[in-house]
Amino acid sequence: MATAKLSCLPTSCIPAKGHRNSSNYHIRIKCAGIADPSGIPAPMGQKTEYKDGWFEKAFMSLFARKMEKFASGGESKKGFWDWDYESFVDVSKRVMIGRNRQQQQEVVREVLLSMLPPGAPAQFRKLFPPTKWAEEFNASLTVPFFHWLVGPSEVIEVEVNGEKQRSGVRITKCRYLENSGCVGMCVNMCKIPTQDFFTNEFGLPLTMNPNFEDMSCGMIYGQVPPPFEEDPASKQSCYASFCSMAKPSSDVCHKLKI
Q1: What DSSP string runs through 68-81?
Q2: Distance from CA of residue 107 to its chain's centroid?
Q3: CB-based burial of residue 113 (10 Å sphere; 0-12 exposed, 13-18 middle, 19+ buried)?
Q4: Are 122 and 94 a contacting pair, CB within 8 Å?
Q5: Closest CA to 245 of 167, 183, 166, 155
Q6: Closest Cα to residue 30, out of 62, 51, 53?
Q7: CA-CA-CA-CA torsion sign (113, 138, 207, 54)
């Protein structure tokens, strides 16, 4: 049986240990690199500079073009490779305009479904029933495939239903939150729809716990997310210093109230 090992390196698929007919493969996924030689995200209040390659730009373009159909201001005339991360975030902001919290989340759901072939959620449920193996496997996939969206992350050990397993992912400093500076965008356009998509469409529970103090985030595959009203993120105030849409006088981000 063929096995694969994922790592964040230039994209390639080569036989393990140099054996031409080996069934074990190392799959290297090209991930966005931080421009600073330290490889560490910028401090709170500053934006990390990334060096994006074709892998990242392809995902930015695919998602941005799908989302732009729902954005205010109409569709741009950008070519496929003309999109970058800032323009991707700008489309997210334009999607929020004129929509309430639930409507924003529904747009993300429709975009995610449109990226998949017909019947994909049902096939995912068959391939990845909510078992420890499936939860750990999806955590390992998250690190390379979500890298373009959230930046550096690592698989960590977490406790799910009283059992320790490596189905957690710690995002060092979320690129999406860092670039948008918007609590409402983080919760309505990423956290809630991603949780709901995995939990309800794929049948694999997922909880995301953003830390608004340092912009890190924890993902726990196998953990059922709480109702919105009981989620600490639902009571988070705006980033008054970072967000252009912030209302500093409000104790809770106004984008989370509507």
Answers
A1: HTTSTT------GG
A2: 15
A3: middle
A4: no
A5: 183
A6: 53
A7: negative
From first to last of its 258 residues, the chain has per-residue pLDDT tens of 434 444 454 333 333 333 344 334 344 554 557 777 777 888 888 889 999 999 899 999 999 999 999 998 777 778 888 899 999 999 999 999 999 999 999 999 999 999 999 999 999 999 999 999 999 999 999 999 999 999 999 999 999 999 999 999 999 999 999 999 999 999 999 999 999 999 999 999 999 999 999 999 999 999 999 999 999 999 998 887 777 777 777 888 888 887
What's the rounded Cα separation, in Å, for the pair 14 and 35?
27
Q: Is the separation of the CB atoms in 57 and 84 below 8 Å?
A: yes
Nearest-angstrom CA–CA distance, 258 and 255: 6
Q: Beta strand 163-171 with 206-211: parallel, antiparallel or unpaired?
A: unpaired
Phi/psi at 220 (5° precision): -125, 105
Residue 69 burial (CB < 10 Å; 0-12/13-18/19+)? middle
Residues 6+ apart with CB under 8 A from 152: 34, 39, 41, 171, 172, 173
